[in-house]
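Input chain follows. Return structure tokens only.
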Amino acid sequence: MKNTLLGSIYLALAASIWGGMYVVVKVVVAVIPPFELVWIRYVIAILALLIVGLIRKQSWKIHKRDLLLIVAIGIVGNTISIVTQEYGTMLSSAQMGAIITSSTPAFMVIFARLLLKEPLNIKKGTSIILATTGVLFIVGNGHIDTSNKLGGISLLVAALTWALMSVLIKRVPNSYSPILVTTYSTFVAIVALTPFVKPSTIFTSQLLDPKILGGLLYLGIVSTACAFLLWNRGLQLLNASSGGLFFFFQPLVGTLLGWILLGEQIGGTFWIGSFLILSGVLLVIKEKEKEKEVKS
């Protein structure tokens, strides 16, 4: 029960942090292009991770047999997924982003079945249907611009690669701490992105704008370092297919923050959708509790 509750809290917090990320990205990406934005947020994130690691006297040793897996996580999740997410956010509407993002947990169930041989059951299927329907209720009551096909394709690639990365994390031995896994995968992403970065687009006069600088610090420290640590740790405590359900908190929190901070209008469908998402998540938590009671 303790691991289930902690894992649920970690994953919900991570997804909630990412829910507030879209507004920040929209502002910052107008000044710093996606490739450079992802690179600089990772540089900020790895500095924060190294400081935390030094304070906690983290061991940085990793077995050679696990190195390829960490590299794959860094390339698939930290590089391809995040870059395509930034491009998709720039090129499409927030509503389209929320709908396509909602496909991530379903892809996680598929990858978990193929790569981890996790069993599928009626409750998992029902929870995904409930949560997906909830997201559609939340974002489906406005006009969705379907003309930005490139943005939609980019977001779909982001959803697929994030799902694959989340399942690959389950193959990392539990003996490695989330700090180690997150730091190494972030370093891989920095190395992969560096050849494509144009320094002239980063060091602009607008970089010292408090709004831009604050956005970069949020993206690097909170949305990358902290949220990745929470997500990786949460996936260590829950199976991949169940953990994916908490990704639905991202569009839920994003819409709610838009209402609170930006004055965006939400209707009764938001509350119906929220109820369906939470119902799907609670169904997963209760299922995990029953599984542990049977085992004990």
